[in-house]
Amino acid sequence: MTALSLDGVSVALGRRPVLRDVTLAVPAGTLVAVVGPNGAGKTSLLRALAGLAPASGTMRLGGEDLARIAPMARARSIAYLPQRSEIAWDLGVRDAVTLGRLPHGDPFSGATAEDRRAVDAALDRLGLSSFAARPVTALSGGERARVTLARVLATGARLILADEPTAALDPAHQLAVLGLLREEAAAGRVVLAVLHDLALAARFADQVAVLHEGRLAAFGPPEEAFSDDVLRKVFGLAFTHATVDGRRVPIPLGPT
Length: 256
Prior knowledge:
With 256 residues, this protein is of the alpha/beta class. It has 2 domains: 2-62 and 159-255, 3-Layer(aba) Sandwich (Rossmann fold); 90-157, no CATH class. The protein is built from 9 helices and 12 strands. It has helices at 42-50, 71-77, 93-98, 113-125, 141-155, 171-186, 198-204, 222-225, 228-235; strands at residues 2-13, 16-27, 30-35, 55-61, 64-65, 78-81, 159-163, 190-194, 207-212, 215-220, 237-244, 247-255. β1 and β2 (16-27) form a beta hairpin. It starts with a strand and ends with a strand. GO terms for molecular function: ATP binding; ATP hydrolysis activity. Belongs to the ABC transporter superfamily. Keywords: ATP-binding, Nucleotide-binding, Translocase, Transport.
């Protein structure tokens, strides 16, 4: 059953088109890696789904037209982790993660038992429970990145949009975060994650959306989306391949 569908979705920044006529359908329980060169439209796609960039075309989540969903309902349904998500004020880790629960209730009534359970679970999954009382500003860049991801997970949204969730992380935490996103998908959610590491995309994603010059160049399982022709055309590089955990993983060699 299709959980997320896009039909002819386009985005422009001023007069410059950055996303052109993207059409795809994603079933529930799917982790989609969104890949492509810089400027391909990856962030614009996520921002359009989050309601942060005006878009033409139709976007549906669970059959509902996102253009017709009330803002608070949309915030409960879609959790967005932007590319740069700094928490600059002196806020404790637990309080920062609790912000992810705001769409579920009255911000002036305090956290409910359900909110606390969701926050505790997110802190535990990101390995942040021992940091819960510390100010976010006292953490390293990688630890802050995990706090912002914990906030997203605490929302419990049907659709998770993560823009470069592994960018500030060491290899161990990159693997851990992608494992968590795969768990979120396995729980029935749709997860779209922008990734620059094609090897990680091939290893963890159920589907890959390859964007090139604002258009969808390929969409499908990693072994299909990462065909030699697509990789050469989109990235202008020659690739070899390795097999990791039974998956064909592309490794860039150099310009074609």
